[in-house]
TrEMBL record:
The keyword Transmembrane helix does not apply. One of its GO terms (biological process) is 'de novo' pyrimidine nucleobase biosynthetic process. It holds the Pfam family Pribosyltran. Its EC number is 2.4.2.10. The lineage of its organism: Bacteria, Pseudomonadati, Pseudomonadota, Betaproteobacteria, Burkholderiales. Homodimer. This is Orotate phosphoribosyltransferase. Belongs to the purine/pyrimidine phosphoribosyltransferase family. PyrE subfamily. 5-phospho-alpha-D-ribose 1-diphosphate binds at residues 31, 81-82, 107-108, 111, 113, 132-140. Keywords: Glycosyltransferase, Magnesium, Pyrimidine biosynthesis, Transferase. HAMAP family: PyrE. The keyword rRNA-binding does not apply. GO terms for cellular component: cytoplasm. It catalyses: orotidine 5'-phosphate + diphosphate = orotate + 5-phospho-alpha-D-ribose 1-diphosphate.
Amino acid sequence: MTQELRRELRAEFIRFAHSAGVLRFGEFTTKAGRLSPYFFNAGLFNDGATLGALAEFYARTLLDAERHGHVRFDMLYGPAYKGITLASATAVALARKERNVPFAFNRKEAKDHGEGGVLIGAPMRGRVVIVDDVISAGTSVRESVEMIRAHGGEPVGVLIALDRQERGGNAENVSELSAVQEVEQKYGLPVFAIAGLDDVLTFLDSGSEAASALAPYRQRVAEYRMRYGASTS
Ligand SMILES: O=P(O)(O)OC[C@H]1O[C@H](OP(=O)(O)OP(=O)(O)O)[C@H](O)[C@@H]1O
Ligand SMILES: O=C(O)c1cc(=O)[nH]c(=O)[nH]1
C-alpha cells in the first residue's frame, strides 16, 4: 500500500468509526482519569456489518505491515473479552484475502471442567499477533505476552484500532512515552494501529458535513493533544 492509500485507509476508518457511533466527541473520562474530548468505544461495533467492516480494516493494516516487512506472523491472539471478537473477525477477514491463519483467545477465569484451561482456539505456536482495540496502561498487552509465551508461542506484534498517541501517566503526571511507545520499548513489539489521534484531527479539519457539525470539538481535541500528546508514536 502506498503512503497515499494508507492515509486514505486511516481517513476512511475514522469516518467509519464516527458514523458507527464508536468514535464520539463530548466529555469523557479515560481509564487514566483524564478528561478527554473524544472517546473510542469499540464495544459499539456490535452488529455483523460493522464488526465485519472493522475486521477488514484490521486485516488490511496487518497485511500492509507484513508486505512492508514490519512483521511476519503465523496466528492471532485476542485478549478477553473484546479481543475475542476482534481477533476472530480479523481471522475471517484475513481468510477472505487468501491468508487463512489460526486464532486463539483466553478465558478471564480458568475453567476446571470439560476441556479446562484458559485458552480457547488453535494451539499456541509460531509467531503471534495480539489483536485488541486500544492500549491504555498496557496491562492487556503484558498479560497477553505472558499468556502467549507460557503456551509456547512467540509474540511478534500488536494490532489495535486506535492509537490515542498520548503520553502515559494520569491527569496531572504525564510521562515521556505514550502507552504504545512503552509497549514497543518494553517488549520490543511493534504496534500497528489502523488510525491515531492525528487522523482524528485530520477528520475534524476535513470540512466534511460530519466534521462541520463537530467544529466545537476541534479546538478541544487540539488542546488535549497539546497537553497530553506524545511526540511521535
Ligand atoms: O492497556 P490496558 O490498560 O490493559 O487497557 C486496554 C484494555 O482495556 C480494555 O479491555 P478491558 O481490560 O477493560 O476488558 P474487556 O475487553 O473485557 O472490556 C481494552 O479492550 C483493552 O484490552
Ligand atoms: O484510555 C481509555 O480509557 C480509553 C480511551 C478510549 O478512547 N477508548 C477506550 O476504550 N479506552
